[in-house]
């Protein structure tokens, strides 16, 4: 048997830079109230959301990603040619083939970086980060771009009271690269496919286009509704506050970090009430900065954690070198949590 | 060991106090969670999750909406506790 030379990676990996892109159009709750029976007060008290961004025609999944990733590359102090792989997590890029990551890698000016998309819903950032860490340590790429990007406004039924106010659009990106010290902890992740019905697309694309269209939901004009994301809000809320606090605690334990050692908590921005409940259950001390970017960004699924991270660093609420717990969770159901050193 | 009615009300009072900040003495059998105790639909989920742990019962989502008052919840727990 011939001997195969192994690849040579870095001892550890870290997040070296972060960048975000928020669409220019800001949508206040008043706009949501045009299509559902609700109130600004209800939306704020049940979700924390005051405004969200919705993308315009030019703000495509690829365009928003290139903006966010360009900032992350600059923040990391590297050049695009040094990027060895581009991992894009999204559920709202409507052209399935080819992967949007390839277009992004090209537009950024990478040197033929490996590029692919992943589908892990609101846990997508943590899934991508875990892959990136593996690549850097294993040696298949020195620098990896992880991008979370969504145009969830395209998948929102504006007549659905349970979701119309919830979702937003945007892109967040990080560059992961070599480190002398551990700076990304063990990932606690998993899936619970037995709960796949709790967050899902209303109609699969094939049925929407060529299947039996009888019985499909119609809008107020009688047209068959475009597929959208629906959820069983209470069931998801219960799972998030009960199970995800445990996963977050496991990630702290796995990294050997106590709540007292923590500087920043960046959970997926699904609902401020989930965030507040987790803070309580985890008994996070006062000094821990908690991301509540949902107020002005809504739920941007895979983009929410890097977007919140970027904002906390930009406003000075968090600083480079801080220890942060990140946890993503959502459709699948899937989840991923880890502890990182902020770039 | 199964909890008595009195113990359940006491436990619920502590839970509601923890989640909604309502004084324990205000949590009485005839009080409505939403109208009297400032427990909205999402806080109610948190109350239920805490009650499940404390009293070793399963309260499925579809039953939660029937638990309007502290008395409803107490009866439910009395009947279903392991
Ligand atoms: C979506 C969510 C805010 C809805 O809150 P909820 O309390 O579960 O809502 P419910 O459907 O049980 O309704 C509760 C009450 O509010 C009312 N209501 C529901 N939607 C409403 C709306 N948009 N505006 C005003 N009132 C509304 C209902 O009619 C009901 O009133 P009633 O008690 O008088 O009958 C909440 O379930 C949630 O955020 N869940 C988590 C979802 C999530 O994070 N998903 C993404 C994970 S990645």
Question: How would you describe what is shown here?
Answer:
Chain B: It comes from Streptomyces malaysiense. Chain B: Residues 1-82 form the EAL domain. Chain B: One of its GO terms (biological process) is lipid A biosynthetic process. Chain B: The modification O-(pantetheine 4'-phosphoryl)serine is found at residue 41. The complex is a heterodimer of chains A (343) and B (82). Chain A is of the alpha/beta class. Chain A has helices at 29-32, 40-47, 61-76, 100-108, 124-138, 205-210, 233-255, 272-281, 294-297, 304-315; strands at 12-21, 25-28, 51-54, 83-89, 114-118, 143-151, 169-179, 188-191, 199-201, 229-231, 264-267, 289-290, 323-330, 334-341. Chain A has a five-stranded mixed sheet with strand order 1-7-6-4-5, sandwiched between helices. In chain A, β11, α8 and β12 form a beta-alpha-beta unit. In chain A, α3 (61-76) crosses α4 and α7 crosses α8 (272-281). Chain B has 82 residues and is mostly helical. Chain B is 62% helix and 0% strand. The site of coenzyme A has 19 residues of chain A, from α2 and α7. Residues 36, 38, 42, 46-47, 122, 161-162, 165, 231, 233-234, 236-237, 270-271, 274, 299, 330 of chain A line the site of coenzyme A.
